[in-house]
Amino acid sequence: MAYLDHAATTPMLPAALDAYVAAARALGNPSSLHAAGRGARRLVEESRERIAAALGARPSEVIFTSGGTEADNLAVKGIFWARRDADSRLRRVVASAVEHHAVLDGVEWLGRHEGAEVTLQPVDELGRVDPEAFAELVRAHAGEIAVVSVQWANNEVGTVQPVAELVAIAAGAGIPFHTDAVQAVGQVAVDFGASGAAALTLTGHKVGGPVGVGALLLGRDVSCTPLLHGGGQERDVRSGTLDTPGVVAFATAVEAAVTSREEHVGRITALRDELVARVRAAIPDAILNGDPDQRLPGNAHFSFPGCEGDALLLLLDAQGIYCSTGSACSAGVAQPSHVLLAMGADDRRARSSLRFSLGHDSTKADVDALLAALPGAVERACRAGAWKTPR
Amino acid sequence: MRVLAAMSGGVDSAVAAARARDAGHDVTGVHLALARNPQTFRTGARGCCTLEDSRDARRAADVIGIPFYVWDMAEEFHDSVVDDFVNEYAAGRTPNPCLRCNEKIKFAAVLDRAVALGFDAVVTGHHARLGADGLLRRSVDLPKDQSYVLAVLTRSQLDRAVFPLGDSTKEQVRAEAAERGLAVADKPDSHDICFISDGDTRGFLESRLGSAPGDIVDGRTGEKLGTHNGAYGFTVGQRKGLDLRVPASDGRPRYVLSITPVNNTVTVGPREDLEVDVVTADRPIWHASSGVADCEVQLRAHGEVVGASVTVTGDALVATLKAPARGVAAGQAIVAYQPDPGGDIVLGSATITAGSRSLPAASHV
Ligand SMILES: Cc1ncc(COP(=O)(O)O)c(C=O)c1O
Q: Which InterPro entries match (chain B) (predicted)?
């Protein structure tokens, strides 16, 4: 088996798993006032401090959530609501066209149900938002923009955005900037304080922690209307009893991912470059998508002209090679990726794509296994590509 | 063999996939997404292409322990089945979309893709027998038999088809599904045309073809008896919904005898005028070695069978019936069977173009 889908989810680090199990054996609701509660609270608060330290945030800026999706929704909707309620002219939401659906669908929902004006900022053929064009947009609409959301790095094609430049432009106009850094943490240097962003999303299961726990780093002075109402456990912005073992394991994983980042990146970049070179040698018409330089070290994303990504995935799956077409399902049916379409690919090219993503336990053997199976699969899938011709 | 199991989300295809796996095949499950606008999946319409059906199919595949994918066949389905359905009605014929789906989608577009991807055959949950002798036969469960909608398959299509359910009754299939822990064991059957979720065929056709008022005339006198909103809304043999202004002189019900698109006319008459004893058909698929057969024919899905002598020559099939049949509609299939204790054998099929009387009916003047 070769698992080349770490961008979807990556195995838990042994230390995170141990921390999870140990904390799960302990009793206590971190909101309780007795000794058991204090024990749980201590674990949660230590975790908050560890995450804050790892990512350049203050502990009070760490809002634990149920994962990346909730954190994205909280940031986009919560900041929009708070800003619009403070000033009714602030009803524009800006997001890049290549955001994850956790941002994009939330933005579109605001457009449909909350009267938001939605601007989807285009990207170039490498998937990057152009800072010049963004600056122009901000100049034209400064008095109306409630919130901007641009991801730190793209989950499909791996392109890393010029976040520092974009944040500076937004900050110059007093506009809060949210960035989805789910894929970035552990792969590129992420410092929340230095970035100047108002809010930043991360999630446990992409960094070696558990699924179902994540965080929104939310600047102390950024107002954000809650999505979930209840006990107000997280700074009154997020309610719900905290998942102590999940939080502890999450913090363990974030800390490990950030501490070992440089070493990890060196190793993974070399492995990824080998994968890309060997795929190109074996399949000369394969096209590498995304930015060749400003990209996540674990990401390799190709179009295989004449093939259907779906067919390739089926053939590779049957040989124990796990990867992804990157496309989301709409009602169970694979749609061509909105990311590739936004980068100017046509429907066919978008549907011919496959993402291979490496992680902390990837080895050369995984790349070998892929290269043993891929050329045959591509040849077969290209032949099957003719299946749509009318009879 | 490496086989692809088409899984609709119903009980039959789930058990078929499980049996193929038990038989030692390497099985991959595929659900065909057929609705063009994915939103329509969410409305939960009954039929074969809702999101719920896709989930049911995936859950069944997980229980059986086979890989599962969704294949988007919406464009092919639309072009080959839905548009064909509309065009056939517009041309005054009565199509059978399930048959067309087998002919053009399941055992064509899907089969081609499967073969190209290295599969040897397609498995479905149809109730029909296809044994080692390669002969297509009726299911043991006669009320559930689906050989009629499979008879359109050619030899090469049948050679790559596997029907694991033909020796079982529907009851047995349901019981087996329950034993296997498949949650679809008691899921109700879908009866309707899957792309017309509310079951209103006439409304669906009207939305596609618009209203086209025309005359309803008496087949014997030529007298105008009423008007209609579109000749396509009628099927030969139909009695209900004629809404005639002029009552029949004999007071007996009238039936649709024919539909003539060129002058947008629906012709009606008494029941005996529906009777035909010669059926002509085109595009024959013929499996028997001789082009002449003394056999039984079935003229519509779930219709009764009649004895006939059938002659196939080139592009045409002519059946002379031993007893008159009624409600013979152009566009439907005529399927020839050779009675057999091991399940009646499909000799071949063709698309009906016309029915006629070899002798004028006695009551004709
Ligand atoms: C960029 C990005 N944002 C958000 C998410 C959603 O995170 P989660 O799975 O924790 O809800 C993902 C992962 O699927 C992602 O890749």
A: MnmA-like, MnmA-like_C, MnmA-like_central, MnmA-like_central_sf, Rossmann-like_a/b/a_fold
